[in-house]
Amino acid sequence: MTESRALTRRLGTRDAVVIGLGSMIGAGVFSAFGPAAAAAGTGLLIGLVLAAGVAYCNATASAQLAAEYPTSGGTYVYGRERLGEWWGFVAGWGFVVGKTASCAAMALTFAAYAIDGPRWLERAVAAFAVLVLAAVNLRGITRTAALARILVAVSILALAVVVAAIATSGDAHSANLGSLSALGSGGAYGVLQSAGLLFFAFAGYARVATLGEEVLDPGRTIPRAILIALAVTVAVYLVVAVAVLLAAGPARLGAGTTPIATAVDAVGAEWASRVVQIGAAVASLGSLLALIAGLGRTTLAMARTADLPRWLASVHPTTGVPDHAELAVALVVTVLVLTSDLRGAIGFSSFGVLVYYAVANAAAFTQETAHRRFPRALQAVGFAACLTLVATLPLSSVVAGVIVFAAGIAGRLLMLRRRSTGIMRGNPRP
């Protein structure tokens, strides 16, 4: 059996906040407003507020749990500790499949903005990006945090330029928002669906919790970092959402796949198009970098308990990173990039991650008073909201999610049966 060493604590509050920001202010902000506008029109603003509210509930649950269980694995570990092995497995499986799809989507988004060429070339560039960032992660978590600082700074600068270009163009009109009644033009279902889709852009706020074994003073650092990163991201998204709606209106945003670029073009600010291109490419790389790191840690945690192959529980003796897990993640994502389509990735990712956070809320609800930092009602609201948003995602995403979860559960049942048979025969599995 491969020995699994403990990871090294190297991250302070600033680094943890930056990794959280790098996970959220990424490709999602450059892509999620399009499908959200198609679902709810101007009502995407309500959807954004709802998504932020659900994210806040989930963030408080994750922060509270991470302070009590400062180890790698996030909700996979919390679910096992508070609710039982099956709850932990469902959370871990949801994170792995959802975020693996997100990695492929981020890589493909990067390639789409970075180059103008045939599909095969885009896929090749996306696969190369995955391998390069996996190599960065393998050099150590401090290298990951250092690169994340640069990528976050460039992403926020690009968004600031976009907002400034729209604000100074003279072609942004409040008429594009419509009257107050336009907020409900998509109906309750459309608004909820937009919230579920926009949740994709928020879903990195608890990434630092999956790095809990590498954070200094986790009881203090993790809760602060999660809430600070979420607050900054909500403010940025609200400003950008209002700006792009004023520039292009919901119909035009919903008709394309690059809503930020569409908004810039709508106000005639061609000079900013290149900034959008660079910002989207860099933001995609930032998200991909943090996603690979988080996936590696959750995979490590699941391998330690034999919910995934034990080989994946390796920790490199020099760099202190889960090397086998990150190599496996990079390989799977590369295969997806070369074979899958970007279409539907946002909805599928949201399905898996919302299930993951539903388990986080359920686990936090059971915590004792000594470990409680937030009202229990927040976890009840968060749990119900996650399940509601899952149900309102596009049907294709729901069907695909159910099938993949069923496959994961069936695989674990088979594994448990084989393990039980081995024990009965006097040959226990490690």
Number of domains: 1
Largest sheet, strands/sense/barrel:
none
Q: What is the fold named in CATH at topology level?
A: Amino acid/polyamine transporter I
Annotated CATH homologous superfamily? Amino acid/polyamine transporter I
SS content category: mainly alpha
The average pLDDT value, as a whole number, equals 83
Question: Helix and strand succession?
Answer: HHHHHHHHHHHHHHHHH
* Proportion of strand residues: under 5%
C-alpha end-to-end distance: 7 Å
What does this structure look like?
This protein has 430 residues and is mainly α. It has a single domain (13-424), classed as Amino acid/polyamine transporter I (Up-down Bundle). The termini are close together. The chain has helices at residues 13-24, 27-31, 33-40, 44-68, 75-82, 85-114, 119-138, 141-169, 187-202, 207-210, 218-255, 259-266, 273-304, 323-339, 345-365, 376-391, 395-424. The longest helix has 38 residues, at 218-255. Helix 3 (33-40) packs antiparallel against helix 9, helix 15 (345-365) runs antiparallel to helix 16 and helix 15 (345-365) crosses helix 17 (395-424). It has 17 helices and no strands. The radius of gyration is 21 Å and the shape is globular.
